[in-house]
Amino acid sequence: MKIPFNIDLKEKVVVVTGGGGVLCGVFAKALSKCGAKIAVLDLNKENAQRVADEINNDGGTAIGVAGNVLDKESLNKAKAIVNEKLGTCDILINGAGGNHPKGTTTKEYLNIEDLEKNDEIITFYDLDPKGIEFVFNLNFLGTLIPTQIFSKDMLEKEDSVVINISSMNSFVPLTKIPAYSGAKAAVSNFTKWLAVHMSKVEIRVNAIAPGFFLTNQNRGLLTNEDGSFKPRAEKILSHTPMDRFGEPEDLVGTLLWLVDKNSSGFVNGTVIPVDGGFSAYSGV
Ligand code: NAD
């Protein structure tokens, strides 16, 4: 892959959670291009290994590591592997996250007639606390727990960085997905809290809030089987002044800027939207 500019990450060890996924796979490759050694950590070991193999085949250094961001024991095991094979962690990208259908309403607005038992429509009243808990845990605890584990390596170093992945819905909630919106708001809030908490030990903490990227997670919500856009996708585009969905590569410049002390050494506790203007546009 091509990166927009180079930063010097030689000898740096990066852990990317959710690295087997679409956006974080691209992050892992971009950071490798800058010379970092990459631990691609994912619940899905196969996908993590696939991304690591692609990096190694391209001349980089990477390992695929199985790890569950909600399980301290699993992360401690992953950390032991990273430390043995690559060294101690300098940069943590908290990318694992996502939504769940059980935390999602079928419709944008509540209609009284939908309350008549209709199994096909999930109203606000049908939202399953277990589904909501899943989404809160994955996004919020799934950011906090890996930071507890991997930032320990950073305490004796300079220039360490944590990057969290938030979302548009952390600023203003999106319809249908109250759990995911609330959980990403918590990720943005935690980013600020952690930046302050870690400021005396020289760990900078920032977040990227991607706009709308067509990936596995949201493809079903946004496109029909033939690839055409659903009304929700059309609505997103009509609220995106730049008139398109993002490509994962659109995030790379912001990632490299936030990681590089020379570029962003005084940037701390921020949540940077990369959204084609979506969050700036009132719709009028
Ligand atoms: P993705 O589904 O392709 O990647 C997520 C990865 O996380 C997957 O590989 C999955 O196996 C892994 N994962 C899930 N649960 C895990 C766990 N418990 N432990 C470890 N790994 C786990 O998703 P993506 O679209 O690339 O999203 C990456 C991040 O960006 C997520 O935090 C997502 O919420 C956020 N995001 C995505 C978009 C978008 O438009 N796609 C927009 C805003 C924010």
Which hetero compounds are present in the coordinates? nicotinamide-adenine-dinucleotide
Can you tell me the CATH class? Alpha Beta
Mean pLDDT: 96
Helix content: 25-40%
InterPro entries: NAD(P)-bd_dom_sf, Sc_DH/Rdtase_CS, SDR_fam
GO biological process, one term: carbohydrate metabolic process
Pfam families: adh_short
GO molecular function, one term: oxidoreductase activity, acting on the CH-OH group of donors, NAD or NADP as acceptor
Attribute tags:
284 residues; Rossmann fold; globular; seven-stranded parallel sheet; alpha/beta; 7 strands; binds nicotinamide-adenine-dinucleotide
Summarize the structure.
GO terms for molecular function: oxidoreductase activity, acting on the CH-OH group of donors, NAD or NADP as acceptor. By secondary structure, the protein is of the alpha/beta class. It has helices at 22-33, 45-57, 72-85, 129-150, 178-197, 216-222, 231-238, 252-259, 261-264; strands at residues 13-17, 37-42, 61-66, 91-94, 160-165, 203-210, 271-274.
